[in-house]
């Protein structure tokens, strides 16, 4: 191999409504919304999720940009019972969990819910 990858810098979600997505990811997941050059991103730590409005995507783009096609896993140190309690307070339905899963760095416990576009959101603790 000619080079080695270090990390993921960002990913892009195509969404039906940027404002609804921003509310969900900032209020439920605690991310920060940042607008740079008219483009909205959600940031946490040193990662970013860039948002594309369906039908107004920036080029180049995915071949079939579609709201609701994402499946994202986020890792937290917060115990999952606290995650579930907080999600319930915000009326976010927990679809599954806690359940055991295999993550990039080993065994984890996860809970699942969906964002406004029905993307699957997994919140996990490594065990």
From TrEMBL:
Gene3D superfamilies: 2,3-Dihydroxybiphenyl 1,2-Dioxygenase, domain 1. The keyword Oxidoreductase applies. Residues 7-126 form the VOC domain. GO terms for molecular function: dioxygenase activity; lyase activity. The keyword Iron does not apply. Pfam families: Glyoxalase. InterPro entries: Glyas_Bleomycin-R_OHBP_Dase (IPR029068), Glyas_Fos-R_dOase_dom (IPR004360), GlyoxalaseI/FosfomycinResist (IPR050383), VOC_core (IPR037523). Keywords: Dioxygenase, Lyase, Oxidoreductase. PANTHER family: GLYOXALASE DOMAIN-CONTAINING PROTEIN 5, GLYOXALASE FAMILY PROTEIN. This is Catechol 2,3-dioxygenase-like lactoylglutathione lyase family enzyme.
